[in-house]
Task: inverse folding
């Protein structure tokens, strides 16, 4: 965990133009990790429900008018909770800066589906979809946040992430391997 924090500090510093930007970005990332840890400590590190995790990560910027979530409340393992919290935080932050949560009439939808079977390859599919935006072009250079969105789940959990920048806004499909309940 401390290695992850050290890496996060260094890469946040490299991607920040000013000290104020650095402090704000780092504080948000640490608060996201703290929220995930708080959920996990409530369950004695047995995991957390995805419904609560998504709500907690959206809370700083989302309202009933600009965000919706939906799916069965599936329990996530501790490692999955931590990784998914960080990815969701970056998606929320980017939407608040550049996407659907930064403009009137923008909307974020986060949905997920229960695996059809619980076998050795059961996967949770989470869909992040922004609407009400103007066309969002892919960045010419990826910063730490976008790299984290694209790389953390595959690297730490063996899942996959498809991040697309489209006509209505960002769409991100995340597949995470699940442990049998």
Result:
């Amino acid at each position: 965990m401390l290695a992850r924090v050290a890496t996060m500090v260094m890469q946040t510093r490299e991607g920040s133009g000013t000290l104020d930007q650095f402090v704000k970005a780092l504080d948000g990332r640490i608060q996201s990790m703290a929220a995930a840890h708080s959920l996990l400590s409530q369950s004695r590190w047995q995991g957390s429900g995805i419904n609560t995790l998504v709500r907690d990560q959206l809370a700083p910027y989302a309202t009933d008018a600009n965000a919706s979530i939906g799916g069965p409340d599936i329990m996530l393992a501790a490692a999955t909770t931590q990784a998914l919290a960080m990815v969701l935080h970056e998606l929320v932050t980017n939407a608040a800066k550049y996407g659907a949560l930064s403009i009137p009439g923008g909307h974020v939808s986060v949905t997920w589906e229960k695996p059809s079977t619980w076998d050795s390859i059961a996967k949770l599919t989470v869909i992040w979809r922004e609407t009400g935006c103007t066309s969002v072009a892919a960045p010419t250079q990826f910063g730490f946040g976008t790299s984290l969105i694209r790389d953390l789940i595959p690297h730490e959990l063996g899942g996959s992430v498809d991040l697309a920048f489209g006509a209505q806004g960002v769409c991100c499909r995340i597949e995470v391997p699940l442990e049998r309940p």
Observations:
- Residues 138 and 165 are 5 Å apart (CA to CA).
